[in-house]
Design a protein that fits this description.
Number of helices: 3
Radius of gyration: 27 Å
Structural class: mainly alpha
Strand content: 5-15%
């Protein structure tokens, strides 16, 4: 009876490296590279202004509420609320 297994030269690291190289060279990955980069964004608060008219008032509307002092605390509170709702939902799904 012959030998049933002959070991190859591949290691887990080499197989992973080959797979990573093939995936990185695929068209979908090359098109998605740099999609989430945030270069060129400054540290200023985002504000914008809608010009007024005779119905809204001549001053218009200025949206600068992201620059308010309490906005960071409000966004942090909203994040904690989303986290709490997600934890409750996960617990409820696990129990039922």
């Amino acid at each position: 009876m012959g030998q049933m297994y002959t070991p190859g030269t591949d290691t887990p690291a080499s197989v992973y490296g080959d797979f990573k190289a093939q995936v990185s060279a695929s068209p979908i990955m090359s098109s998605a590279s740099g999609f989430f980069s945030a270069s060129g964004i400054g540290g200023a608060c985002p504000t914008w202004h809608i010009p007024g008219n005779k119905y809204w008032g001549q001053a218009g509307f200025s949206f600068d509420f992201f620059c308010a002092d309490g906005m960071l605390a409000l966004l942090a509170l909203a994040g904690y609320m989303v986290l709490a709702v997600g934890a409750f939902s996960a617990f409820r799904i696990a129990i039922y």
